[in-house]
Structures are given as structure tokens and as C-alpha cells.
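Deadline looming. Please check this record:
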Amino acid sequence: MRFMMWLIPGAGAVEGEAPGNGSDADGAAAMARYNHALWQAGVLVALDGLCPPSMGARIFFAGGGAELVDGPRSGTMGVPAGYWMVDVASRDEAIAWASRCPAAAGETIEVQRVQEFADLAVDVQRELTRDAAVRAHGAERGGPRRRPVAAS
């Protein structure tokens, strides 16, 4: 089972500060050891730190459209600073790994299972499989190329 583990800074976090024992070398070394332990155990699928919230944007959907509500936002409470994707045998194992993280006081790790294809209803699986076949056929014929989305 795959689980996403988000590191959420505490209320006292400073915009741009690296999570996990602050931004000091000892904290970074402890986090590197933790990441290496995940990798050595063969459970690490992916991990990344995230840029500060001020470099991002938040889009809300209402009334049939998308709206940029707060633009590059400030504050970090409840905003992930980084993540790990792990593939483990159970929720308990994911929680055990999250509990080993050398996070600083006040930081939180949120653990959530990734929805797998088999978790979906049969009719949804069928539709997604059909859609994948259409995309594969389009790729064989030199299908769509990546293009930027026009801002509205």
C-alpha cells in the first residue's frame, strides 16, 4: 500500500525556513539519515521538499469556474513543507515510519493512504481503462503534445 506523508511546519515556522529541526546542519543531517533509512528499507517511492507558500497559488472552484483566491499566499500553518511517498504493508507501518522522523517540536506529519485502482468502483475502473486505451491509440498516431495552458 502506498501512503503519502506530509510534513507540516508548526505555527512558529518562518517563511522559507527548511522543515525538520529548523534549517541547521544537524537537523538537515538527521533528516538525511531518516530519508536514507526509508530508502534502505525499500519503502521510499519519492520525497521532496516544497518551496515556501509565497511562491505558490491556491485555486478554488465554485460556480462552474476556477478562481485564484489568495494568490501567492503567506503563512505556513497547515501547508505542507515537504512529503514522502512510501510503499508499505499497512497503515500501522506507515505510522511507524512517520513516528521515526526527526521533525522539530511543533511540526506534524500527516499520513494518508493513496487510493489504488482496485479501490475504485468497477464502473469507474472501466471508464478509466477505456480512457487509457483512447490515449494510447492517440500516442501511436503522434498524439497531443504538451502545450501551456492559457491563463483566463
